[in-house]
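User:
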Amino acid sequence: MKILIVDDHGVVREGLQRLFIAHFDAQVFEAADIDDGLAVYTREKPDIVVLDLNLEGAGGLELLRRVLSTDNAARVIIFSMHHEPIYAVRALRGGARGYVSKSAPVEELIAAIRKVCAGEQYIDRDLASRIAVSQISTDDPLQSLSIREVEILRMLGQGKSMTSISENLGIAYKTVANICTQMKVKLGVDRTADLIRLAIETLKT
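Assistant: Predicted structure:
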């Protein structure tokens, strides 16, 4: 089995590598950012990608999109500090096969790899329960957003300008501005400052 770890923290990559080698007959590859992650994926064609969302720049959701655009059969498990249901829902809708919070027991990540390798999906148990509750709730203001909109909202919450976002995502400034306008309509707000506030309060960026 080939496993690719994409995480910008060296200590996390090292810990995961030891974990995977201990539990699987695995060849483990590492990458710290989007460009390296895509390059290693293209070169090695790993069986599983364990991907952090909170990468520098465009973020893990963008790498998920890029990997799937080159290989729609890619098996990606999100392993993230973000335990808000919206991230898991958007990641799964965007093509991820699994989602495990970094606060979950280590057994959950091992189980996720086994399940995804077998062609199934996996969400850690605590998060799965929270997603079920969130689907019933009607007060989640971000339910209507696409995966691209969530990623741009996250970057706004990190203090990035629309120019910086366009450069990080490799899309035109006008496209970012239009997406922000669409988000304002969906979320019922008038100003970019309101989007930033929602990002900080809801996504905990």
